[in-house]
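FAQ: What does a ligand-bound record look like?

Like this one, built around coenzyme A:
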Amino acid sequence: MKTAILAGFRSTTTQEVPGWQGPCFDRTAYPPRAFTLEDGVRLVPGGSAARRGAYVAPGVVIMPPAYINVGAFVDEGTMVDSHALVGSCAQIGKRVHLSAAAQVGGVLEPAGARPVVVEDEAFVGGLCGLFEGVVVKRRAVLASGVVLTASTRIFDLVNERELTGVVPEGAVVVPGTRPASGAYALNKRLSLSAPCIVKYRDDKTDVSTALEEALR
Ligand SMILES: CC(C)(COP(=O)(O)OP(=O)(O)OC[C@H]1O[C@@H](n2cnc3c(N)ncnc32)[C@H](O)[C@@H]1OP(=O)(O)O)[C@@H](O)C(=O)NCCC(=O)NCCS
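The answer part, i.e. the structure of the complex:
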């Protein structure tokens, strides 16, 4: 898919394309998608865009401004909140909540081979960042501000293990820190980011992350 997308960039030139408030200038292969009422997508006015080549399922809500890039897949009932990014080829499951300013990176630049995947009913808190093919399994919960790349170590305090690149099903991850190693770091009292799984989803988590049906 990525090869085909890149071919589209190479095979078209930047020209005037229709915009909301005057002309925009982009490669003509990937104009913003136009939705119809029949698509069943709630595209709230205020400046969001889903590019051609992105799949947006019925029941998705897109709060402005949000951007869904080429090759992305956003499944039924998912909320893409304000300032959220669904990067190129990112795969977002059913009834996922992408909170305000959650950033899901794409594969085009810097060049990446694996897309970020967020499985069904996961909750991605405000200001989270998911990059470099990280996989968030079903019903996992990321507290606001958790940033994960392929090399971020995730500390599972429940099962006493370390993970990279994947958040297990139902895990509740919160931002944490760990001391940086080496004399210099010790002297300067430096810490590195260390996202921690503090628990696995329980009734309290369900209450904390309950979705509002009226919004859907
Ligand atoms: C993760 C979250 C859902 C809470 O889940 P929860 O299951 O109710 O968590 P609990 O309250 O049981 O907390 C479990 C432990 O994690 C800690 N914890 C919870 N949230 C935390 C956070 N955001 N940062 C650091 N620690 C956190 C608690 O202090 C507790 O630790 P303790 O047992 O040592 O006291 C909530 O903190 C959160 O981030 N919600 C998302 C908010 C958001 O982004 N909204 C979107 C707006 S658009």
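Follow-up question: can I read anything off the structure? Yes, for example: The two ends are 30 Å apart (CA to CA).
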